[in-house]
Amino acid sequence: MDKLNALRQQLATIVDLEAATALLGWDQHTYMPRGGLEARVRQITTLQGLIHERMASDELHELLGALEADTGKLDPVDARLVLVTRRDVDQARRLPAELVVRKAEATGRALDSWMVNRPRGDFGAWRPHLEEVFAIVRLEAEALGYEEEAYDALLNRYEPGMGTRRLRAVFSELAEGLVPFRRQVLEVSHRVDDEMLSRHFDGQKQWDLGLRMLKEMGYDFNHGRQDRSPHPFTTSFGLPDVRITTRIHENDFRAGLFGTLHEGGHGLYEQNFLPEFDRSTLAQGSSLGIHESQSRLWENLVGRSRPYWNRWFGEVKELFPAQLSGVGFQAFYAAINRVKPGLIRVEADELSYNLHIFVRFELELRLLSGDLAVADLPEAWDSLMESTLGVRPPSPVDGCMQDMHWADGSVGYFPTYALGNLYGVQIFNQARREMPAMDEDIASGRLLPLKDWLTERVYRPARSVDPGELLRLITGQDLSPQPWLAYVKNKYSELYGLD
Amino acid sequence: MDKLNALRQQLATIVDLEAATALLGWDQHTYMPRGGLEARVRQITTLQGLIHERMASDELHELLGALEADTGKLDPVDARLVLVTRRDVDQARRLPAELVVRKAEATGRALDSWMVNRPRGDFGAWRPHLEEVFAIVRLEAEALGYEEEAYDALLNRYEPGMGTRRLRAVFSELAEGLVPFRRQVLEVSHRVDDEMLSRHFDGQKQWDLGLRMLKEMGYDFNHGRQDRSPHPFTTSFGLPDVRITTRIHENDFRAGLFGTLHEGGHGLYEQNFLPEFDRSTLAQGSSLGIHESQSRLWENLVGRSRPYWNRWFGEVKELFPAQLSGVGFQAFYAAINRVKPGLIRVEADELSYNLHIFVRFELELRLLSGDLAVADLPEAWDSLMESTLGVRPPSPVDGCMQDMHWADGSVGYFPTYALGNLYGVQIFNQARREMPAMDEDIASGRLLPLKDWLTERVYRPARSVDPGELLRLITGQDLSPQPWLAYVKNKYSELYGLD
Predict the structure, then answer these.
(1) Cα–chain-centroid distance for residue B34?
(2) Which of B24, B40, B240 minimises the CB distance to A39?
(3) Do B89 and B65 form a contact (C-beta atoms < 8 A)?
(4) B238 — contact with chain A (CB < 8 Å)?
(5) I want to staple A288 with a disulfide (CB 3.0 to 4.6 A). Which of A334, A416, B265, B297 is the partner?
(6) Residues A221, A315: one domain?
(7) How many other CB atoms sit within 10 Å of the CB of residue B478?
(8) Could you tell me which residues come within 8 angstroms of residue B366 by beta carbon, excluding any fewer than 6 positions away?
């Protein structure tokens, strides 16, 4: 038990350093004066180096070894703590410290360059940074090790138990159902008018509306807050302080609204881990896919649903009477669900979103293997967008420079967004089966039954269960694209009057 | 030279950890949701422990030893770096790690209790925390060591080279000139009407005015920002990111205005250290007294001066026409300089301010020695306030609970405020001698010549020179209360028509 306490103490120090690092990042993207960037990147690099040093230390490694020799004596939660910590420690020990520091520095510079060069679409200026990041990521994959493909090593960090081969199969089954259905919808979706969403919506009113929606879904402002940032994100400094950010566009009502619900979903997850997991390696999502299932569930399955707008449409119309003058419920509901080929992932409708992920998945596989050179990325991106989504970016701004993930060294991350969509529907279907009044509740502004159900099934377990097992525990099913396909077919057939 | 680089590398890591700790503190007092407090105190405690561990490490100690054996080979700046780092390392090595952690935890709790209990004046609830802090501070003084008095050990941390005996002599000489003069002023100062400063001044307008004043004095918003906090402070995450906070009272025009100028002075100092000192132990003020000389210089010697209001009065009157209707320059100038017995240090006029410090100095000496029990502090405070300032606090809210310094474990700190007043006038007099047009410049809104002069003489040298020597280098004088006494006698005799 002394060893267990020693482990907890070591992890508490690491988690506190991670919280400080997260705060350095939060501040960088919210309030930091521009001139502070270079120093900030150095500070984050230093702290990441110290975290790695501690995670890879012989002391922690040996402590785990002693506990592993005797796991029979541990209760299941402690045994799980030892198991997931071992995963983290093994990963850390496989990565040389120089590589960790090199990555922190390179991604700091690449993100900075991205922020400066994306608005002007200067891929050439960003390119060397991205090349360096992919060179590092390749070394990471080799250092981490894998059985079948280098990509497995990266994917596994975000989605434990998921392999590239399985992912290809899931995506291929998903595409098989999605692509022809989306084509069918696109033939009629131009009939939907969504012009009213681009009228001028006062920023402060949008902000206040978002706060009300967050409160209604149970986001706890005593243990969180929402700030503005150019790119919305959720971050946590421990269970008692989980923050989200959003951006408001006065000429696009969707951006702030759905961004807020999306991050609110991430925030709910992080705020509701089992409290005893705080300050340990268990206080994390089961996987990024499960994490994303929660943001997408609140954003789409709740936030773009009929019942939700039965509850909110009247109020929103009162709040923006001029903008929504003459707009009825059905027109509004159709507008926020309009399927439209577009260039931008984060603005994509539900039917197009996963296709954006397919593009990124294929390209990062090729970039990793070296089959595609970074220099050739813009052309490859544009071609693949055209063949997959039917649109060709006029410039890298809205093409291969639109996301920050690669600059951040997060390769193998994008697929978790599509997995989140699939997990989300499987989990949501189960919630509806167990709570037959759910739609009525949502339509009456009672979101807490759903939040409480999710808390019990998804949020509290946190990282104590791996994603595949978690899904089976909740739904009795394995991951499958079929429930998601059934959901979109049902929703969009009804919306567009398809048979 | 390898050893010098190794030293710089070690210090860079420590300074980065200090920056992260400072950000955790800044956030705690500006944006943190209330529910995050407990976790935040733990995080700060963890980081302070890691900083102490590194500062007290044998590795750093031995590195310094090797460099000290060969100081002849170092250039003067590097020799100074070794010297001040040795001071920090010796202090750290004298403090047992348990005591450092105990202090971080105790002060975290004491500050939290202060925040909760001060508004309701519940000294009894705060008392056990304060007792624990003084118990720790006593152990600190013993661990640090001293020649004459335990208080020396504490004072020296904030004001290198200053001893309790010398401080008593300086304060006694100061009191000798100040007390009778203040009595003389108080006989007539009631004639001054300052009621207009308590009218309603719109918060946003005050805020915008403060930002303009900060810009005019040369505070760099590309490397800093101002936020709101209940208690104004300045903090730094390295030279490129120095932030200040202020509070605005809509019914007291003075609070935001002079608080902003005060913190602006601290901010200018921190923004203008010699850039090559960044990320080292040299990137600090020469002492807290010198630091305070800069905040008080901008707040009082500039901000409460005739020339400054020659520049600003017209604009302020335009900004607040109703509030200042019928108020002339002389009436306004007299009002912001009104001498009035009051309970609150941070609101004190220039003549009363140092008396507040005398009260705290005497009481903390007695609390440290054990001559005064914490339980008896309220009564001792009230009596001493009455005999020193002529006012008796009706409750601890505005009595011994008004400051957070003791809760924070900062004993020996208060005297540096009075020293700052004295240093400030000595330095300002020299500036005026060298820049005969200074008053005209200030009256025309040209503050940059003064800022540049201070940058050269005070800010850039940072911690490369100790306070006594710095003062001699700038003014050719030693610390003395006489210039300050001459300044206040001149200013207030003129203001109140004394001979």
Answers:
(1) 26
(2) B240
(3) no
(4) yes
(5) A416
(6) yes
(7) 9
(8) B372, B380
DSSP class of residue A324 equals: T
> B31 to chain A: which residues are within 8 Å by CB?
31, 225, 227
pLDDT at A456: 98
Query: Considering CB atoms only, which of A39, A221, A241 is closest to B39?
Result: A241
Chain B interface test: which of A11, A16, A229, A244 (most B C-beta within 10 Å): A16
Over residues B441-462, the mean pLDDT reads 98
For residues B114 and B237, membership in a common domain is answered with no
In whole angstroms, what is the distance from residue A34 CA to residue A115 CA?
11
**Rounded-to-integer distance, Cα A9 and Cα A32, Å:** 32
Structural domain includes residue B157:
no
Chain B contact for A240 (CB, 8 A cutoff):
yes
Give B242's contacts (C-beta < 8 A, 6+ positions apart).
Answer: B223, B224, B234, B235, B236, B267, B270, B271
**B285 lies in the same domain as B141:** no
What backbone torsions phi and psi does residue A296 show, to the nearest 5 degrees? -70, -35
- Based on the fold, state whether residues A94 and A179 are members of the same structural domain: no
Separation of alpha carbons A128 and B260, rounded Å: 44
Q: Taking a contact as any Cβ pair under 8 Å apart, which residues of chain A between 161 and 190 contact chain B?
A: none
Counted residue by residue, chain A has a size of 499
Alpha carbons A381 and A86: distance in angstroms, whole number:
38
Contacts of B227 in chain A (CB under 8 A): 31
CB A298 within 8 A of CB A271: no
CA distance B378 to B400: 6
Q: Are B267 and B297 in contact (CB under 8 A)?
A: no
Q: Express each pLDDT in A172-215 by its tens digit.
A: 999 999 999 999 999 999 999 999 999 999 999 999 999 999 99
Are A114 and A218 part of one and the same domain?
no
Pairs of residues, one from chain A and one from chain B, whose beta carbons lie less than 8 Å apart: 113
Six token digits for residue B239: 């030279």
Amino acid sitting at position B381: W
pLDDT per residue as tens digits for the range A153-166 = 999 999 999 999 99
Query: Domain limits at B174?
Result: 165-496
Q: Is B38 among the domain residues?
A: yes
Residue of B nearest to A18 (CA): B43
Handedness of CA B110, B235, B448, A33 (dihedral sign): negative
Does the reported pTM lie above 0.80? yes
* Amino acid code (one letter) for A157: R
Q: Which of A437, A466, A469 is nearest to A453 (CA)?
A: A437
